[in-house]
Design a protein that fits this description.
This protein is 53% helix and 8% strand. It has 503 residues and is an alpha+beta fold. Strands 1-2-7-4 form a 4-stranded mixed beta sheet. The longest helix is centred in the N-terminal third of the chain and has 44 residues, at 2-45.
Length: 503
């Protein structure tokens, strides 16, 4: 027995030593590989027009936690001649383009973007792995072609009455609120855009506006929670430690429940539509076009695309409308000009698709709002070939390029008086460089829903201006926004007072 005990002890000790040696060897191998990769990256980064000193092993990744501050620092540190800057994400060098001409060349040179590791996992957990933002190359091109059809002229024309009717219903609700009482209009505008995307995309009424006094529907609350979690986990130090979604934590259980609420509702809508298709009673809308294009696909892949469509369709447009109400409420001259236009074009009637071309100043207010407050702060591209930005300045293939939309649209490199609010920048006679105004990204991979969003924002804003005078409770020139996050949200809401207009 003693010999057996000694043998067992001997084997256990040597097994522990062996495992320790294996772990140590693996760690050293990983470290050596990472360090070699780091120096190779330095060699690659030194070929860029604006070399920047790296730091092993994190680079500038910690600055991302305060995202807008990082972009401001990048803008301040740009090369004074080229307007280029460079940062390091761990051992990977990234070029940042800021001049409009460079931005446009990068957008048109490549539709591929290497996934940003620290964000792609959160993106998948929120939107699913099959959404078009996660697709690249031929898969992306095929999906883009299919999804673009519902956003053409004829479908958009049919959507206009739905958008206008939602705006009227919203204004009817606002007219019931106590006079001269301040309120946060941002969550209410989310209800408007949620109803619009439901009715235009799915012929489904979420009844958000109808139930505004009772609070938002559970789907909207679930989306809000998922978006806040994305920001917390990706852009804060505390969230970093809980970014593993498999851990048995309260936050992960809440995340799974919220995700399931959204996906269950989309699955119900899809199942109902398929029954209508079988009965020959299905309407023609975005959902119908997508189901027809993906008739052989699994339901999960279709749900992923529709979840993205819902998120992009209601959240970003509601942000634009919220910031626009702040601008109107804090800039009396702009609001007066908008009132004059809607009175002249609409009189007392509901806006139509045909009115959009006449609501020129309204659209200019929308575009200026998007210039100052783009919903997304940044996008990226990975170059698939060498790109010459200007004489003697070439970015080599496989370069990761960051395109900070908000910084570009507020840079004196691209705009005169960039921090001044001036919708007349977009007057018909003014030429806007396609790389200077990029709230919908640019090039072949620009936002599919650009025309949809501009049309909806124009109709809703015109209807609001037709019915009310808005006063902003924020008396600063800028509306405070969160300094990090996947979208640019107002920090303290958008509080306003409204006064019905006499006609």
């Amino acid at each position: 027995m003693d010999r057996l005990t000694e043998l067992a002890r001997f084997l256990a000790e040597h097994a522990t030593l062996s495992l320790t040696a294996i772990a140590a060897t693996a760690t050293l191998a990983w470290g050596a590989t990472a360090y070699l990769r780091f120096w190779r990256a330095i060699a690659k980064g030194s070929r860029f027009p604006v070399p920047a000193p790296p730091s092993f092993p994190l680079g500038n990744v910690l600055l991302i936690r305060n995202f807008y501050d990082m972009l401001d620092k990048v803008h301040a540190a740009r090369d004074p001649v080229t307007g280029l800057a460079q940062i390091w994400i761990a051992s990977r060098p990234v070029v940042v383009v800021l001049k409009a001409d460079h931005v446009n060349k990068v957008f048109n040179a490549s539709s591929y973007r290497r996934p940003i590791t620290m964000l792609s996992n959160h993106n998948e957990k929120m939107l699913g792995k099959h959404n078009i933002t996660a697709m690249m190359n031929d898969e992306w091109r095929a999906e883009r072609s299919l999804m673009g059809k519902p956003f053409q002229y004829a479908p958009l024309r049919e959507m206009a009455p739905i958008m206008a009717a939602a705006a009227v219903s919203f204004c009817d609700f606002l007219s019931t609120l106590p006079a001269e009482e301040a309120f946060d209009i941002h969550p209410m505008l989310r209800c408007v855009t949620m109803d619009v995307i439901g009715l235009t995309a799915f012929h489904y009424n979420f009844s958000c506006i109808e139930n505004l006094s009772h609070g938002p529907p559970k789907e909207l609350e679930a989306f809000e929670f998922l978006l806040d979690e994305y920001t917390r986990r990706a852009f804060t130090f505390s969230g970093t430690f809980f970014s593993n979604y498999w851990m048995p934590t309260s936050a992960n259980r809440k995340h799974r429940r919220a995700r399931q609420i959204v996906r269950d509702r989309i699955a119900e809508i899809i199942a109902h539509r398929r029954r209508l298709v079988e009965a020959g009673q299905a309407p023609q809308d975005i959902l119908g076009a997508m189901l027809e294009a993906h008739s052989g696909d699994n339901t999960e892949a279709t749900i992923d695309q529709l979840v993205l469509l819902m998120f992009a369709g209601f959240d970003t447009t509601s942000l634009t409308l919220s910031y626009a109400t702040f601008i109107l409420g804090s800039q009396p001259a702009i609001q007066a000009a908008l009132h004059a236009e809607v009175d002249r074009v609409l009189g007392g009637r509901t806006a139509t698709f045909e009115d959009i071309n006449e609501l020129k100043y309204t659209l200019q207010v929308v575009k200026e709002t998007m210039r100052l407050y783009p919903a997304a702060p940044l996008t990226s591209r990975t170059l698939t070939s060498d790109v010459e930005l200007e004489d003697g300045i070439v970015l080599p293939a496989d370069t990761d390029v960051w395109i900070p939309l908000r910084t570009i649209q507020r840079s004196p490199l691209n705009w005169e008086r960039p921090d001044e609010i001036d919708p007349h920048r977009f007057d018909a006679g003014n030429v806007i460089h396609p790389g200077a105004w990029v709230p919908f990204s640019g090039g072949p991979r620009n936002c599919l829903g650009m025309k949809f969003a501009l049309q909806e924002a124009t109709l809703v804003l015109a209807t609001l201006a037709q019915r009310f005078t808005i006063e902003s409770m924020c008396k600063t020139h800028e509306l405070p926004t969160h300094r990090s996050g996947v979208v640019s949200k107002p920090t303290n809401g958008v509080f306003v007072k409204i006064t019905p207009r006499a006609h």
